[in-house]
Design goal:
alpha/beta, Rossmann fold, globular, binds flavin mononucleotide
Length: 194
């Protein structure tokens, strides 16, 4: 009887330990209501789009990464505007840093940029050249003096479509955080504890 008890309890311990070892190697379950399948990629020169992206990060809990030209734009508005203007006129896709995390981990990607000459900056074209957004949902966002998001949408739609991604409406951030939260809520991205 004692031996039987000993065998049963020993087997129980072995099964429990094996279970722990097996589950340790498994990918962790994605938690409901968390945005750990959402990534924010933003480009920003003078910090306005950076602030927008960081507000979105706080509201969503998503991962965030800054898109950067491989060779930084020259400092000073006139200087970087001149280089950017040349890129735009010549349709140059400037080299970018390869710092974007593995996109396989994400379903939804928010892509933010300042509107330049009614359009996304050319680094956004470079982003789509290098990274594969197939199957992702892309939500563009922009900051600008006045140009609305919709000015950049045809370009963003073309880039997304060529990659096999779905594009959503997008929005222009103008420091109105209540409006931003409503937008995120409509898209199911607002984190519950906000
Ligand atoms: C080269 C350049 C072109 C711009 N073109 C526009 C434009 O077409 N429409 C607009 O409303 N604002 C335009 N702006 C203003 C920027 O979109 C705005 O200041 C933006 O918030 C800057 O974002 P950042 O601080 O993240 O770089 C332009 C700014 C620059 C530098």
């Amino acid at each position: 009887m004692q031996l039987k008890k000993w065998i049963v309890s020993t087997l129980t311990v072995i099964v429990a330990v094996l279970g722990m070892i097996i589950s340790f190697g498994q990918p962790q379950q994605v938690q409901a209501n968390s945005n750990n399948r959402t990534l924010i990629i933003y480009f920003s020169m003078s910090g306005t789009t950076k602030a927008a992206a960081e507000q979105i990060q706080r509201d969503t809990g998503a991962d965030i990464v800054r898109l950067q030209r491989a060779k930084a734009y020259p400092k000073g508005y006139d200087n970087y505007a001149r280089v950017a203007d040349r890129e735009r006129r010549r349709n140059t896709h400037p080299a970018i840093k390869r710092n974007i995390p593995n996109l396989n981990r994400y379903d939804t990607v928010l892509i933010g940029f300042p509107t330049w000459w009614q359009q996304p900056p050319m680094v956004i074209h470079s982003l789509f050249d290098i990274y594969d957004f197939r199957g992702k949902t892309i939500i563009p966002f922009t900051t600008s003096m006045s140009t609305p998001m919709k000015a950049s949408i045809p370009t963003m739609r073309r880039l997304a479509k060529a990659d096999g991604a779905t594009i959503k409406q997008g929005f222009r951030y103008d420091n109105n955080n209540a409006q931003l939260r409503r937008f995120l809520q409509r898209n199911g991205l607002l984190q519950n504890n906000n």
